Amino acid sequence: MSGLTTSASNWPDLAWLIFGLLGQCLFAGRFVVQWLASERARRSVLPNIFWYFSIGGGLCLLVYAVHRSDPVFVLGQALGLFIYARNLWFVWSEKRNGRSSAQDPCPTAAETGRDPVEEELLAGRHPA
Length: 128
Prior knowledge:
- It is built from five helices and no strands.
- With 128 residues, the chain is mainly α.
- Helix 1 packs antiparallel against helix 2 (49-68) and helix 2 runs antiparallel to helix 3.
- The model has no long low-confidence stretch (mean pLDDT 82).
């Protein structure tokens, strides 16, 4: 590989390149959003906006991949879009049913009313 080069020698090619970069920025931005949300919560969380960034970036990248006629890129993005859409379906279903999609499937000791030491033992961890 001789380095990073581009074949955007005219406006349409440059527009496609910018569109692909926008998709990549959205796609990568989902990790920044997740990281910031986790830092704020002081634990690993996956905010709903993660899925919107995933779909936005994935759609842009899929369109870009089709334009470039890249079957590997197309298959990767198409499968991802299905997964992101399915996760958003779960989020919307929970909202319709009055449940928060942010609910942790593994509640803390305070949420269960159990003693923290008991919680640690049940989780298989040995309290210090």
